[in-house]
Specification:
By secondary structure, chain A is α+β, with helices and mostly antiparallel strands. Chain A has 12 helices and 10 strands. By secondary structure, chain B is of the alpha+beta class. In chain B, a hairpin with a 2-residue loop joins strand 2 and strand 3. In chain B, helix 5 runs antiparallel to helix 8. The N and C termini of chain B lie far apart (89 Å). Classes of the chains: A alpha+beta (330), B alpha+beta (698). The interface between A and B is large, with 85 and 89 residues.
């Protein structure tokens, strides 16, 4: 019996080693370890014919042989399965260079991106954003801002009128009067607005009747022109990078005194951003603020130039024409 | 203004070499008088300067030299004959030798000088003068006219030469035009004059529009022998109003509108007379008729040094400040620590202390030396406006849903798609320059449809765009409103990149558009939302349009563009749109933002899923079926989902089968089959009774 056991175990071990697939291995398992007809299992039946003293020895030998065969099967199974999986995966290979099938996200308009960025930086500088109407009262667009009636300064502000006293705002600065006028804010405050402006203008690569501005203004004790330069410097560095320098050049706007043009050194040249200055004392007085105690700054910057310079866009009109071949580039 | 450097060099040292000239220009530019470029002309390098509206004194060669000298600390040659102070008033009419001047409107014309020059020979002016005029962008005419223009460019004082022999008695009367008077101006146009327009007249009629343009009949011609040369001071506002009313802008009116130095009147007259003698052979009468109706008195402004320092944010040196002001022609008297400034006659723009601060800042300090400081941080901090936050949230949600963000024009041609209500409230531009700029949009849809149409024309078949922005309406009872809209247009495939799908397998159709709206509302936390069939919308398909309803309130619609609009607007077939009330959405999203949201604990017991596929009349809306089924299924129903819609010949005409997937779950126990069957039984009988369902296949 013991000889037979050894022979069968050797046979089983070889059969398991030679099994080439999971199915074949399953078959070998049944052949040798099957409950009913397994060649090893069947040896148990011969136990009855043994002398009582031999039985435990043989039983133990048989169990050990079975355990060894089972281990061999398990090991072989791992190997066979790994080989089979590898074969399947080889067969399942796809062309990973075919295009994707995901539904693509849409894209933000470059003006939206720029506006978001401007807001992010200015909110970081403590500005609170507010919104004004596009159809503005002549009073807020001009009178409040210290434009004398019939002044040559008006020549730069050719306007679209909708009735004798209302026009499409020519500058977002028009919000100042709405914020500082009757029932408005008391200093200190730091307010900003962003939006569309409209001026009758020849339409060309760099001029459009519709453009975008961001305006910021603040009234507080001791606000100075140096503060304005500092805030605009911080804004410019937030928008364009840490190495950007800001330049003031004297300029004239009726609502500021002193008035400056703001430019930043960016990309190897001076980029003119807009106008700024200390809020004219006439305006502070109109708002009822004590000009001996309070002063303020205001600035109005063009938005459109920023993405134009950033992306090398040479035609301002592209922004509102919405050719998808243009917009899909951003 | 165009200023030949050779001319400028007569008064201030201008470098000859290019780098030196560029540095000179930079100093001017940084002082506020921008040199846009240096042009090459027959008169040599010529500066092209940009004059701000407050600085009329820059509209001259000498004024530019004066600014350059002040900003660059250069030596300035005095202008010959320039007076220290103005003359005393003289009677407004003086009989001279063969001429007289009477000023009837001293406010509009404070001073008028007339100089007589006899025996001129009219002909071309010398080449050097013609070159300078051409370089300054003025056309040479003849030596007399050229001299008046030359002196105007040099000093800033406009002059006019009359043919003395066309003036009866040599009489000049400065008065407002009378009703019905006309004048044919030098450009050959007959102008109707009105009261309020200041005119130069002879004894009976206007012969020139004061400060704007001369008249034809008194023009200097080749046969002119004797000249009356006018050098006068006119009020800026009067000239501007007249020029605007006549629609006539000239070099003269440009300068008068910006204020001309009142002390130039006699200086310019003498300079022109001398030049005329030189280039036209005339002999000037030694005396000048100089009528001063209102005397110029210099103004004073007291500037406190500490306020100047506070405004600039910089401790400017007092003595340097004074030196800078004096270079600008401002006479400074020291009063304790303050500066008593006597302002020059060419600087009407300086009126208050803060103006002096600006002059000190730009000329004595230089803005490049201004430090950058930050005002103290504010504890209330920065934030976006509610509308700004909402706009950003909408854009992000719709971009995530696959749509392209667009910004379209507010100023447009009136859209033929506008509803009667929109037309009634449309805002029109007064005196529009073109139809495209004649009205404000009343809806975002026409622009969006136009974008999709143009995309189609360029070969882009799959397009999905949206815009968030205001539309503009005239309010009943006066005023305007700018309601916020959120609108989108979609066409073509919703999955254009899905190459395993048949091209039309996932179209951007009604259900896709509806999904975009649902995604948006979910992102904003707005809901629950109902979509109710709405057959009577102006530009959408009557059978393929739904009103979007939130909390019983209609906030917009989603639908297919009607065939009529597709045809009239030249659109591709099957275009879908949504159009939502942004203000209401903003309100709803704010409410949602304030609502406390709690999580639902994860389920502890398994779910049971069952499908039913009854046949319905196709006219029974899914919303009703779903409501009936949900109500009948009772509290164990976790969810109901539609998994298939089948319409086939075997069902019969007008029928469809809907596969409804019910998921049941209890929060307290594992469900038994009998409980699920009982709930489904309720669903079956409710569907049969309330929706006419046929359960034969279910």
């Amino acid at each position: 019996m013991t000889e037979e056991l050894k022979a069968i175990e050797a046979e089983a071990t070889a059969a398991v080693r030679d099994a080439a697939s999971s199915a074949e291995l399953d078959q070998r398992e049944t052949d040798y370890l099957g409950r009913k007809a397994g060649k090893l299992t069947s040896l148990l039946r011969g136990l009855g014919a043994m002398s009582p003293d031999q039985r435990p020895l043989f039983g133990q030998a048989l169990n050990e042989a079975k355990a060894r065969v089972e281990l061999a099967i398990a090991e072989r199974r791992d190997a066979v399965k790994a080989a089979e999986r590898a074969e399947r995966e080889r067969a399942e290979a796809i062309d990973v260079t075919l295009p994707s099938r995901a539904r693509p996200r849409g894209r933000m308009h470059p003006l939206s991106t720029t506006i978001d960025e401007v807001k992010r930086v200015m909110i970081g500088l403590g500005f609170e954003f507010a919104d004004g109407p596009d159809i503005e009262d002549y009073h807020y667009n001009f009178d409040w801002l210290n434009y004398p009636a019939d002044h040559p300064a008006m020549d730069e502000q050719m306007s679209f009128y909708v009735d004798p006293t209302h026009l499409l705002r020519t500058q977002t600065t028009a919000l100042q009067g709405r914020m500082m006028g009757p029932g408005g804010r008391k200093p200190p405050f730091r307010i900003a607005t962003i939006g569309r402006c409209y001026r009758v203008d020849e339409s060309d690569n760099t001029h459009s009747h519709t453009f975008h501005q961001v305006d910021g203004f603040s009234v507080d004790e001791g606000i100075s022109l140096a503060d304005l330069k500092g805030v605009l410097g911080a804004f410019a560095r937030g928008m364009f990078g840490p190495d950007v320098r800001v330049r003031f050049r004297p300029d004239f706007f009726p609502f500021v005194e002193p008035g400056v043009e703001v430019a930043v050194w960016w990309g190897g040249r001076w980029l003119e951003l807009g106008g700024a200055g200390l809020i004219h004392p006439n305006i502070l007085k109109r708002a009822g603020y004590d000009t001996e105690k309070y002063s303020g700054f205001a600035f109005g910057l063009g938005i459109d130039r920023m993405p134009m310079v950033r992306y090398g866009i040479d035609d301002l009109r592209l922004f509102l024409e919405n050719d998808l071949r243009f917009l899909q580039q951003f | 203004m165009r200023i030949p450097t050779a001319w400028l060099r007569e008064y201030v040292p201008v470098p000859e070499d290019r780098p030196g000239l560029e540095a000179f220009c930079d100093v001017l530019t940084m002082a506020g008088l921008e040199v846009e470029e240096v042009l090459d002309t027959p008169a040599g390098p010529t500066l092209y300067t940009k004059i701000t509206p407050n600085r009329g004194d820059w509209a001259s060669v000498y004024g530019t030299a004066r600014e350059a000298a002040a900003a660059g600390k250069l030596a300035l040659a005095p202008y010959p004959g320039y007076p220290e102070r103005g003359p005393a008033p003289t009677p407004t009419s003086l009989a001279g030798a063969g001429a007289s001047v009477a000023i009837e409107d001293p406010d509009a014309c404070p001073r008028y000088a007339a100089k007589l020059i006899r025996n001129v020979t009219v002909g071309p002016s010398p080449q050097w003068m013609q070159d300078r005029l051409t370089a300054a962008n003025m056309r040479p005419v003849n030596n007399v006219v050229d001299v008046t223009n030359y002196v105007m460019l040099e000093t800033g004082q406009p002059l006019h030469a009359f043919d003395l022999d066309t003036l009866p008695g040599g009489a000049i009367v400065v008065r407002q035009a009378r009703e019905g008077e006309t004048l044919t101006t030098l450009d050959g146009v007959e102008r109707k004059l009105e009261p309020g327009m200041l005119c130069i007249c002879d004894v009976e009629k206007p012969i020139a529009v004061a400060g704007v343009m001369g008249g034809g009949p008194t023009e200097v011609t080749e046969s002119t022998k004797n000249i009356l040369l006018e050098s006068a001071h006119f009020d800026a506002l009067s000239i501007r109003r007249t020029a605007k009313r006549l629609g006539l802008g000239t070099e003269a009116s440009f300068r008068f509108e910006r204020h001309v130095d009142p002390l130039l009147v006699s200086v310019a007259a003498e300079r022109a007379a001398a030049l005329l003698a030189e280039v036209a052979g005339g002999s000037a009468e030694p005396s000048v008729i100089d009528v001063v109706a209102k005397k110029f008195t210099p103004r004073r402004v007291l500037a406190r040094v500490d306020r100047v320092r506070r405004l600039l944010g910089c401790d400017v040196d007092r003595e340097e400040s004074i030196a800078g002001l004096e270079r600008l022609g401002i006479r400074v008297d020291r009063i304790a620590t303050n500066l008593d400034c006597v302002l020059p006659s060419w600087r009407p723009d300086l009126t208050i202390e803060d103006d002096i601060a600006e002059e000190i800042g730009r000329v004595a300090l230089g803005y490049e030396n201004l430090p950058e400081t930050l005002p103290p941080p504010r504890s209330d901090g920065g934030k976006d406006s509610p509308r700004g936050l909402f706009t950003r949230a909408v854009r992000e949600a719709l971009v995530r849903a696959g749509l392209q963000d667009v910004h379209s024009h507010s100023l447009t041609a009136p859209s033929p798609l506008a509803t009667a209500d929109e037309v009634a409230h449309r805002v029109l531009i007064r005196a529009p320059l073109s139809p495209e700029l004649s009205s404000l949009r009343t809806s975002l849809l026409p622009n969006l449809l136009g974008i999709v149409r143009r995309a189609h024309e360029t070969g882009i078949r799959d397009a999905a765009v949206f815009e968030i922005g205001p539309v503009y309406l005239r309010r009943d009872g006066g005023g305007y409103e700018e309601p916020l809209r959120v609108s989108g247009v979609l066409t073509g495939s919703a999955m254009p990149q899905a190459w395993s799908l048949k091209p039309d397998a996932f179209p951007a159709d009604f259900y896709f558009a509806k999904g975009v709206v649902e995604d948006l509302l979910a992102a904003l936390g707005v809901g629950p939302t109902a979509f109710e069939a709405s057959a009577d919308e102006p530009i959408t398909h009557p059978g393929r349009t739904a009103a979007v309803v939130v909390g019983g309130e209609r906030i917009g619609l989603v639908g297919e563009v009607s065939e009529a609009v597709v045809e009239s607007s030249d659109l591709p077939r099957r275009v879908y749109l949504f159009d939502l009330d942004g203000d209401r959405l903003l309100g709803l999203s704010q409410t949602a933002g304030q609502t406390l949201r709690r999580y639902t604990p994860l389920p502890k017991y398994p779910a049971v899923t069952r499908d039913l596929a009854p046949v319905f009349d196709a006219s029974v809306p899914y919303a009703r079926i779903a409501r009936v089924a949900t109500e009948a299924a009772g509290p164990l129903l976790e969810s109901l989902r539609l998994t298939d819609v089948y319409e086939g010949a075997n069902l019969g005409p007008g029928k469809r089968s809907l596969t409804l997937r019910f998921t049941f779950r209890s929060q307290t126990t594992t469900l038994r089959d009998a409980e699920v069957e009982a709930a489904l039984g309720e669903v079956r009988s409710a569907l049969v009774e309330q929706t006419g369902a046929d359960l034969r296949t279910g």
